[in-house]
């Protein structure tokens, strides 16, 4: 007869975990000041053989140090550093990289702690995680993920880290692009094509946000996405999300468009090959189609963001003459002109992108007309 021995966890640690997970923000900060961060980090170190305890402690740590209301606790990075919390989180993750519930808890804590502490606090925390090797472990966890929820939280954690300072470049050097695209291929497709099944869309959405963050913060490294096949996947994702929007009006987010705009901007500055790959994948046509679709509906906050992203994507794509020709053929000039009055007042980014896009498209059309006239005169 098998006898399963429950791990011994001191009552004060269980009480701390349960209390912190349900505490109000002010109470959580009082607990933190009393040394709870140290206690939770010690719990992670002391119970590496007990996944359930690790999961509870990770969720507790994430819930406790998230800044839900300003101002941020400027002493939080020092508290985390003193407790060696980042190292404890990394060690907990490494106990079993294939344990999906454990990796979900860790990724949720990392994302919450980093993303919800803005400014210098978030940047300092992100750097602690990276210095502890958390970026590499997240990529390993993403590669090993078999559950859609685990992959989604892991991608969200990578996105949160990428938003701060030089974190994106460090993550890109750690094969993040290849891992993200492998996860898309494994968890977001059915029969070789991107799937609109909800669990697949949830991972695809998180992957697109990760691509957008990494390409925006580390544009010089974005050619790694081109090498991993991201250009084709992003264009297909934009089309898929556009179809989902048409069927489900509640789903007003467009991470694929954000990723397309970010890759196009990075390609314009750093990679002609990636720019060509986006054009060949149909980026010009799909960006124009999305802009036309946005113009047909009343705009919410998310709708205005989509409008800006579509204009920025068209603007950056139009820097290339061949892309400008394809955009014009798709009706981008008319769409951009119609979008200018719809831009939100004070949204300088959208207005600048629209004006520059019109200028580039007009110049491209003039050059094309000149070339046609020159060809005709030569062949008379």
Automatic annotation (TrEMBL):
The chain crosses the membrane at residues 161-184, 196-215. Keywords: Membrane, Transmembrane, Transmembrane helix. InterPro entries: ARM-like (IPR011989), ARM-type_fold (IPR016024). This is Uncharacterized protein.
């Amino acid at each position: 007869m098998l006898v399963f021995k429950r791990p011994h966890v001191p009552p004060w640690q269980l009480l701390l975990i349960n209390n912190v997970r349900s505490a109000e923000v002010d109470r959580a900060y009082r607990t933190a000041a009393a040394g709870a961060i140290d206690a939770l980090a010690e719990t992670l170190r002391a119970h590496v053989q007990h996944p359930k305890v690790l999961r509870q402690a990770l969720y507790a740590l994430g819930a406790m140090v998230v800044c839900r209301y300003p101002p941020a606790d400027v002493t939080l990075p020092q508290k985390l550093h003193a407790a060696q919390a980042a190292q404890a989180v990394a060690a907990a993750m490494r106990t079993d990289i294939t344990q999906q519930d454990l990796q979900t808890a860790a990724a949720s804590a990392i994302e919450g702690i980093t993303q919800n502490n803005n400014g210098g606090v978030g940047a300092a925390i992100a750097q602690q995680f990276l210095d502890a090797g958390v970026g590499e472990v997240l990529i390993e966890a993403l590669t090993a993920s078999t559950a859609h929820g685990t992959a989604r939280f892991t991608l969200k954690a990578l996105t949160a880290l990428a938003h701060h300072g030089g974190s994106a470049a460090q993550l890109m050097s750690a094969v993040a692009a290849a891992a993200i695209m492998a996860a898309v291929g494994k968890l977001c497709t059915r029969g070789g094509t991107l799937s609109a099944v909800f669990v697949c869309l949830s991972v695809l959405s998180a992957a697109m946000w990760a691509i957008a963050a990494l390409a925006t913060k580390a544009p010089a490294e974005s050619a790694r996405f081109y090498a991993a096949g991201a250009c084709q996947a992003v264009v297909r994702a934009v089309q898929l999300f556009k179809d989902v929007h048409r069927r489900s009006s509640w789903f007003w987010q467009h991470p694929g468009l954000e990723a397309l705009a970010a890759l196009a901007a990075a390609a314009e500055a750093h990679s002609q090959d990636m720019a060509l790959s986006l054009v060949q994948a149909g980026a010009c046509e799909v960006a124009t189609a999305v802009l036309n679709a946005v113009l047909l509906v009343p705009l919410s906050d998310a709708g205005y963001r989509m409008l800006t992203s579509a204009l920025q994507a068209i603007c950056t794509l139009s820097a290339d003459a061949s892309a400008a020709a394809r955009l014009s053929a798709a009706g981008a000039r008319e769409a951009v002109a119609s979008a200018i009055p719809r831009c939100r007042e004070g949204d300088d980014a959208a207005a600048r992108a629209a004006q520059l896009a019109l200028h580039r498209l007009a110049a491209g059309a003039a050059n094309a007309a000149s070339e046609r006239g020159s060809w005709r005169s030569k062949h008379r």
